[in-house]
Amino acid sequence: MKAQAKRTEPSLPDSFDWSAIEQSLDGHGNAVLPGLLSVTQCKEFTALYSREEGYRSRIVMARHGFGRGEYKYFAYPLPPLLDQLRHALFSRLAPIANRWNRQLDISVHYPDTLDAFLGRCHAAGQIRPTPLILQYGPGDYNCLHQDLYGEHVFPLQVAILLSEPGKDFTGGEFVMTETATKSQRAYVVALRQGDAVVFTVNHRPAAGKRAGMRKVSIRHGVSRLHSGKRHTVGLIFHDAR
Questions:
Q1: Domain limits of the chain?
Q2: Nearest Cα residue to 204 out of 159, 238, 156, 236
Q3: What's the CA gap between 184 and 27, in Å, rounded?
Q4: What is the mean pLDDT of the chain?
Q5: Which CATH architecture has domain 18-235?
Q6: In this model, does residue 208 exceed pLDDT 80?
Q7: d(CA 41, CA 30)
Q8: pTM, whole model, 2 decimals?
Q9: Between the CA of residue 189 and those of 11, 39, 86, what are the distances in Å?
């Protein structure tokens, strides 16, 4: 997958009900995009993991206390399909992110395009690309965490499951926790091969018991794998210092 000189913006599948996606994000902090990638596309991305070129770094989670497993951050230029999806999804999610900030009285406003937002990140020294591909084997897991990386943070991100549950691996569920002032909730998000989950990076607004909105803190991770190998692509929209 070599970078193209000129990007062609993809049209996301018409089958996605963006109104329902927005409602799910508002209510639970996550929403599934079924079949975002085809099986062939999933296999092509999985095959990239064993290559040396195209990445800026490799992280072994156990060395940093992140869990077990490993991941690689893509280098710029990103693979064309990944780059196109990152741009197209940002344009869909920016209006939701702006509404959330208004509800939480946060003054940050996100531009309509990813290029404009990345320009803001890069001007602040956040120049390292954050899209990544993760690999888990038996016994591996990812601790609950938030992908922040710097001053400029886009409040939504996307993970795409490349492997087939029950065939390529068992266990390894995508999990999220919500923490408010006096309550906690946990979610297990069921995904099929090629499905994507859009989810909250750090916090989302939620209706308070009284008038107004309250801030709910979100963390995400992956439960322990029982068998096989699990690969995932992560699309984070802000770059890192």
A1: 18-235
A2: 156
A3: 14
A4: 93
A5: Sandwich (2.60)
A6: no
A7: 23
A8: 0.93
A9: 25, 20, 21
**For every residue of the chain, which 3-state class applies, written as one string?**
CCCCCCCCCCCCCCCCCHHHHHHHHHHHCEEEECCCCCHHHHHHHHHHCCCCCCEEEEEEHHHHCCEECEEEEECCCCCHHHHHHHHHHHHHHHHHHHHHHHHCCCCCCCCCCHHHHHHHHHHCCCCECCCEEEEECCCCEEEEECCCCCCCCCCEEEEEECCCECCCEEECCEEEEEECCCCEEEEEECCCCCCEEEEECCEEEEECCCCCEEEEEEEEEECCEEEECEEEEEECCCCEC
Distance CA 208, CA 100 (A): 14
* Pair of tokens at residue 94: 């920016």
* Each residue's pLDDT tens digit, 173-186: 999 999 986 778 99
